[in-house]
TrEMBL record:
Name under which the protein is recorded: ABC-2 type transport system ATP-binding protein
CDD domains: ABC_DR_subfamily_A
Keywords (A to Z) from UniProt: ATP-binding, Nucleotide-binding, Transport
An MF annotation (GO) of this entry: ATP binding
One family name in Pfam for this protein: ABC_tran
Domain ABC transporter intervals: 1-227
Gene3D superfamilies referenced in this protein's UniProt entry, alphabetically: P-loop containing nucleotide triphosphate hydrolases (3.40.50.300)
Length: 282
């Protein structure tokens, strides 16, 4: 079953156009949603959450069209919005939101408070950014949603807090088999976490693949500039070079270039793929 399915979604904004977006987010996995600033990630998340309407196309959540009840009960959204409640404690916020959820699980809330080591009787204005993000995650998790959507949860966090938060998400998957849809322009967050990657650029989906397929599809190719023949160039998505050396991204079988023993083939990071794919298109 797909947790999220977008069929031919379009949305026009002043200087931006989301065009014919088809997307399938499978249940039970972590899907990373990557793309540079302004690519359209938040716009798509807002369309999924019914905060803004698409001009055309269809959104299905667990196979059903949008409906307020289904959205509230089944989706936990985690983003940087708790600053609106900075004069309240997490306990006070919890008291006001819990009655809206049929499946609110007070025991789960308390165990997350303990696990994440958050003081829930302290005003949010005294929380660090990382603590606020964990608070948002606790509120989302405590109503037992089937799907957790995180919009840039790690942006603005220092590397240690980011690692801590990513560890929490990983543990959630081991313990509870949640479905997570996680947008980030910090691709290193997703290198060892995501099962699937959706890559968006300029309002278009560049690819959606599982991590294994990505490893088989993309290769970093390196060598001396003299080995950057027209034949090698024709196989590369894009490349760059100094006076001596070149580095590029190959999409497809590495057999296309590995006959040349001076050429090195390496596994790319998601950042490499995003970098060279956006170079191709710019
Ligand atoms: N309310 C709005 N009205 C008009 N244009 C908008 C509005 N919100 C966003 N945009 C434009 O839509 C485009 C996509 O923005 P969006 O926030 O979806 O990108 P993003 O991939 O989430 O980027 P980031 O990583 O920077 O958050 C941008 O060009 C942005 O300027």
């Amino acid at each position: 079953m797909n947790a999220i399915e977008l069929n031919k979604i379009s949305k026009k904004r002043e200087n931006f156009f989301l065009e014919d977006i088809d997307l399938k987010i499978p249940e039970g996995f972590i899907t990373g949603f990557i793309g540079p600033n302004g690519a359209g990630k938040s716009t798509i998340i807002k369309i999924i959450m019914d905060v803004i309407k698409a001009d055309n196309g269809e959104v299905l959540l667990f196979g059903e069209p949008h409906d307020k009840h289904m959205l509230r009960e089944n989706i936990g959204i985690v983003y940087d919005n708790l600053y609106m409640y900075e004069d309240l404690t997490l306990k006070q916020i919890k008291k006001s939101v819990a009655p809206f959820y049929r499946n609110w699980d007070e025991k789960a809330y308390e165990s997350y408070i303990e696990k994440f080591k958050l003081p829930d009787n302290k005003k949010l204005k005294h929380f660090s950014k990382g603590m606020t993000m964990k608070a948002s995650l606790i509120l989302a998790l405590s109503h037992a949603p089937r799907l957790i959507i995180m919009d840039e949860p790690t942006s603005g966090l220092d590397p240690l807090v980011r690692r801590d938060l990513l560890g929490i998400i990983r543990d959630l998957m081991i313990d509870e088999q949640k479905t997570v849809f996680f947008s980030s322009h910090i691709t290193t967050d997703l290198d060892n976490l995501a099962d699937y990657i959706v890559f968006i650029y300029n309002g278009k989906i560049v690819f959606q693949k599982d991590i294994e397929e990505i490893k088989q599809t993309f290769h970093i190719v390196k060598g001396h500039k003299n080995d950057l023949s027209d034949n090698v160039k024709s196989k590369l998505v894009s490349w760059e070079h100094t006076d001596e050396l070149f580095t590029g991204l190959l999409e497809g079988s590495s057999a296309a270039v590995d006959k040349n023993e001076n050429i090195l083939i390496e596994e790319p990071t998601l950042e490499d793929i995003m970098y060279y794919k956006t170079k191709e298109r710019s």
